[in-house]
Structure formats: structure tokens, C-alpha cells
Amino acid sequence: MSDFLIKLGKNSAAREIIKKMGIPLSMPQELKRAKGPWEERPLGDMSIIAGHIGKAKLANVLADSLIESGATIYLKEEEETFQIYNEVGKSCGRFPEKLNDESGKKIKPDALVFDAMDIKTPEDLNIIYEFFHNNIRKLNICGRCIILAPSISKDLDPIKAASSRALEGFIKSLGREIGRNGSTSQIIYVEKGAEKRLDPILRFFLSPRSAYISGQAINVNAKIPVDNEFPNTRILEGKIALVTGAARGIGASTAKTLALEGAHVICMDRPAENEAAGKLVDEISGSLLLCDITDKDASRTIIDKIQNNFKGIDIIIHNAGITRDKTLAKMDSDRWNQTLNVNLNSLIRVNEELIPFIRKNGRIVCLSSVSGIAGNMGQTNYSASKAGIIGYIKILSESLIEKSITVNAVAPGFIETQMTAQIPFITREFARRFCNLSQGGLPEDIAQTLTFLSSPGAAGITGEVIRICGGNFVGA
Amino acid sequence: MSKIKKNSKKTRAVIVGGIRTPFLRSFGDFIRLDTIALGTIAVKGLLQKIPINWKEIEGLVWGGVVIPSDTPNIAREIVFDTGLPPSVDGLTVSRVCPSGLNAITIAVSAIERGDADVMIAGGSDSLSNAEVHLPNSFVHKAAPVVLNSKSTVKDYFRLLKNINFRKDIIPSRPSIRERTTGELMGESAEKMASRNNITREAQDKLAVQSHMRAAKAIETGRFAMEIVPVDTPDGKRVQTDNIVRGDTSIEKMAKLKPAFAKNGTLTAANSSALTDGASAVLIMNEEKAKSLGLEPLAAFRSWSYGAVDPNDQLLIGPAITMPKALEKAGMSLKDIDLIDIHEAFAAQVLCVLKMIENDRFAQTRVGLKKAIGEIKPESINIHGGSIALGHPFGATGGRMVITMANEMKLTGKASALLGICGAGGLSGSAVLEAV
Fold first, then answer.
1. How far is B359 from chain A (nearest CA, A)?
2. In chain A, which residues fall in CATH 3.40.50.720?
3. Residue A34 and residue A445: Cα distance in Å, rounded?
């Protein structure tokens, strides 16, 4: 299952030879990934070049977030903005550094963050071009490019909307270029009033935890009210989480990552998986729930478990899913029914019946797939189910706003699991390389994003589909 | 509204006196006096100075950082060696540099709670007698053979063959290294200095200030009331702190090389040195003191202990605990007459002062709406500090309490704010008030 080319790429002698001989072999950059639970200063040791257009509307938010997270900020000495960063830096002994021709030549930034909230016309795009054009070559491996832009909504006039939306195209292409260095780029659309929800989102997308997300547009809205401060560590303290399909792969990795943040995880899987699930439950001190989601009584079983042992449920991760690939003409009805039943019908039925038991500030996250967004040969059944999930979460999220429950989906691309190990070698190799980062993702990449979306700090994200695909070349 | 509760006490504990040994640079004249011996000297000196029936004493709480592993409860050993009745309880407190202060406030708590009426508290450390450990690998290899009565000559030969001289025999040099970060304390302080832009000049200036003021205090006999002369086992009589340099200057200090980093700003001169010494105070229930006709010097209005992440400004703690102690005392900075801050490193003190006047720091780290205010380096440590006097870890808290308590009595000043940083990110602070 391991990626031979990444291993090869780590060997400097091999790299030299392949380069010198002109062998057209891409050696993907091994990605920097996080170890352990969320840290107090996840951006510690990172240097970030910050830029802005017009009135740096997010200067205060960015200064607070990035400096407190441990980063050293480099920015041009433009009086007011620099002062804002300086005041924050003074209070934690992490002063911002002036970015000029001299310092600019020496630094190797780990991230480039641009505040484009005040963009007005397409001519303004030149400023973004200059910022990234001047700095992109310096970007360190496994670097991050983030643009913050106004949400494309009725609040904007058409010209502003055009200018803001242009940034998405920019960032997507940029992602394709920097992927070979393991670097990623995203655009974060910020709705009016959603600014104070940005801190945890910035921490996630600038940290190694978002390693396999590339070229994505993240919408941050102000639909869910927020009152308390977001915890930086032990982010799921006191939460009860349910993970379906927890015995292996993405489910198991997710259960472990949730538990590491303080959640008590109910690990659910079919009775046939009792050994693997049991071991997992032991390891993370969670609870075991042996239950097939397609059972007529599945909901009842889950509800009983919740009611008998806990006061309610906070987080539901709908991860259980199967593939039964066959091109449509050859796909028998069993393949169709099984896939739809597990991946969509049962998910919806169980979820609907669990909703009354989800506590305030709860989180529902469903596993969709790039296949559901872009389609895939032999996966009419799978894609239908995964696309159905997208429709479901988009509308369900609206109705759960008053309970402050967010509903989102993640769409993994090619992830190295038991499921994908079954794909024939050549197809698998192509699938792996078919993204900006030229490599498959790992279950932990999905787990990290699911954990983030389950946390209080993700209150600004609801009704969204986040692709975790390494910047897959298909679909948008 | 700040979430820090204000103290209210019913029984008040008062400090009726304090004594310390001279503080000497380690591996000097005190080399043959271990921490128990030094502590005993301080306590004996205390009891000679204050006329009190030894039978009244109920407990001794003692702070120490470098604790002998075969007799960890040095407080109890000091009770025995002083000749106090065996009924006197002994509790040893190890909380890095604030240990001495902690020992004192534990004794004060006991008295305020009514668990005792008369306590001795203080602390000591002898870096000269710090144990030098054989590597664990040696013990692990040797112990099964040596401690087993059935071991044969063959077993011993096999052991000798297995021992690697370099890895198993040569002792590891003790250093003040933070276990979780792997940094020497000076390296952590150097990082703090660079993060907060504390210049070499500013550090040397504070160091010179410390020396000048300590030298003056010695010269004018100000410390005479606090120090007990010591007759060492080698027959010398020591009466004076010997690290103080009244003839130092910024020019002299500027010549020194950086001690903890290439191109660093911390030097041996603007850092505190390894020191041996002890200090002790006598604390009583206020009514008891009155009934015995003893004049109290001062009382604790409040204290605050805290901890910060060693990875993020290891020694910044006092910038949090000093404002907290002030808040608990229901006072503001302008109510404070004297400020005494332990000088682990001049850089550390200056970083603390920078943070203590920063509003945002107060909001995010202390939980107060505003910073307590500006404290100029000139306004602290009127008789010098740890840089000049030395820092026998466990004894420093007591030294500061004694000097401040005496100062209030001598000058009629009403209050003092103390702050001590420590390894592991720990810190302790207190507000003393005149009685």
C-alpha cells in the first residue's frame, strides 16, 4: 500500500540520477503531517508573509490568530497594519518582522496569507498577482497559500463578485503548480459577520493537519451563533461521538483522532468486525456498538446505546460505506441495491432518527467522495450515493441552524486504504498521481479534517463539502 | 469583573523575624556544608536572635531544590540537627526556585487555618554538594550482581567485561536543563531576550544596579540584622555575601563573552550564579505573638502561584502571578511601596517587566482588563537582587521575605510585592503588608 515513488524521492542519490538522466518520473514530496493532538501553538516555528489589499479588514483577526498560534509574521511596514501586528506581537514576545528587499531575499516562508476582503475591481487583482508573483518562489516545501476573500453573495455588486470569484481560479491554478513541493493553496470566502470564526479555521488550514487538502474554496458563514471562545487544545473535551464503520481504515483513524482530543467515541461496525472494533475500543477507551447500519432496528440500537449510557450525542460521523463497482450495463440489481442501501438509504434513515438526540452545538459529518462530485467509471451506484449525501447535507444544514448543529460532508480523493488497495495496480498508480500532490492521501488526512469539523472551532462551516483529494484533477 | 477572588482572613499569621546565612558562590568556603548543615545554621541563628521557648514550635517547613536522595526530607533532619524537640514536624517543599516562598506560605496557611500557632519556614540549597549521578546504565548492570548475595566471582568478572567505561562509569555533569524542552535555563532566557528585544546594555545595566545596591547595603550594615555569621568546618568565619562586586561597571561587564548562545546577550555577569546558602523565618499566630511580647514585622496579604508552558517563554511566570497576587490583595500598583523580583537573569526580569505593563498580555494571560502598570527597572530590588547576592535556590524566597519585612519595619513602608520565576515554567508571588 505504501507509495514507492515517495520513498524513492526521499533518497537524494536516486533523485539526482533520475533528474540527470531525464527520466520522466515524478517523485512526489512526502507531506509534513501532524503528530498527536491539537497544540496550543500549531503554527509554532512557521514564518508567514502577510499581504492585504486596500483597508486590511482582517488585520486584527489575522494578527491575533497567526501570532498567538506561534507564527512569525513578515509584512510590509505600512503604518496602520504593521502597528496592529506589532501590538499583538508585543504582548507575546513574537514581534512581526518588516518585509523589505533585504529581508525578503533571506526568508523562506512557510505560508503566504493574503487578505483580499477589500477587493473592489478586477484591476485590484494586480495586487494579488504581485504579492504572490514576488513571493511564491520562496515558499518552503509543504507550504501554504491562503487568500481570504468576500463571500460571493447578494451583498456584493457584480463587479466585486467578479473580482472575488477570480481569486478562486487563481488559487486553483496556483495549487496545481505548487503541488509538486507538497504545498497547497485554498481560498477562504468570509461572509459578513463571520470574521470571529476564522481563528480555528486558519489554524487548521495553515497547519500540517490539512496536508491533503488543495485547491479548495472554503465558505465561512455566520449562520451558527458563537458565544464561548474556541478551545485550542483538547478541542473535543466532554463530547460523545459516534463513528460508523469504525473498525478499519478511515473510520478507525477518525475514532482515534477524535479520542485524542478528549471525545468519548462510540465505535460502530458490523458484528463481523467485532475483533478489530473491540481492539480499537480498548485502545481509545471508547464504547463498542456492534450493529449493521442496514438493520431495520439500527436506529433503535444506537438510540438505546446513547440513552442508556450518555446524556446525548454531540458528534456523528457517517463513515460506513461500500463499493460494488461495475459498469452500468453489467451491474446487477444486488450491486446497485447494496451500495445505495448502505451508503445513502440507511445513512439518511438512521441520521433522521438520531437528530432529536443530538445536543446543542452538535456536529454531523458525512463521508461523500470525489466520485460523487465528478463521477467515475463503474461507479454509477457509488457516485449516486455519494452525490445524494451532498444534497442531503446542504439542505439539512439549514434546518439544524437553530439547534446550532453544523452538517457537512468531506469528499476524499484517492486514499490509501484496504478499499483502494484492491484496485488493479496500473489503475491505482494513475489514480494516485492524478492530483496536485501526485500522491494518495492517508486515512489520517481524512481523520484530521473530520476531527476539525467536529470541533467547536468549526462553527463557521456548515452545509459545505470539503474535498480532501490532494487537488484532484477531475471535477471542481 | 476579574475572576480572581479577593482574600479575607480571620486569623492572621505574622512574621516575627528572619535570619539567613551569608550567600557564597558554590565550591567556595561553604563546600563542606551540605544543605542540611546550612539550614541548621540558619534556624539556630533564628532561634538565638528571637527569645522563644523551643517547646512552642510546632513545625518546620523547608524549601529546597537540590535534595539529597538518601534523606529527602531535609526539613526533618534540620529539626534533629538543630536540637529542636522531636515533636516538631518537618515538611520539605520542592517547587524549584519559589520553594522557599512556598514553604513560608504553607506555614502561613497552616497558622491561618488554625492547624498551628508557631512555625519555622525557609529554605536552603548547596550546589557544592549536589549529587553527581553515576549513569543509570551502570546501576542497572551492577545492582543485580552486587546486591545478590549468591553472586560468584564469575558473575563479577562478567560484569566487569560488560561495563563500558565511557557510557557506564563517567558521571553525568549536572546542569540546569529543562527536562521537557532539553534547553539550559540560560538558553531559554536567551530566547526570551531575543523575542522581546532586550539588549545586552539593558541587561548589564540591571546587573550593575544589583551589585551597586547590594554593595551599599553591605557597606552600611543594612544586612547585619539579617545575617548570621558562619564558622565553617575549615575554621573560617564567614559573615558576608561574596558574589557582590561593588567595583563592577558596565564597561567591565561588556568585556564578557555570551554564555548561552553565539552572539547572545546573556553573560555570566548578568545571570545569577550557583550559590550555597540558607534562610529561615519565624511565623506565628498574631495573638500568640502579642501574648509572647514579640513584635511582628509583616504579614502576608496574598500570594499567587502559577505555571506557564516551558516552550513559550519559560520564565515569564511572575508577569502573571504578580498581578494576580495584587488583585487577590485588593490592591493596585500605586498602593505598593516596595517591589522585589528574583533576578534569575537580568533578561528574564526585563521580559517580565515588559509583559507586566502590556494590556493585551494582562487580558489574554492574566485575566485582567488592564495591565497593572509600568514598573521601571530602577524601582525594584532596592538592596540588590539575586544577580549580586547569589541564588541558593531554596533560600531565595526567604531572603526576599526577610529583607522586605525588615525594610517595612525600618522605614515605615506599608507594602511589598514579590515575584519569583522558576524552572518548569513555575512561579510564585506574594504581597506583604506591614503590621
1. 8
2. 47-220, 240-468
3. 9
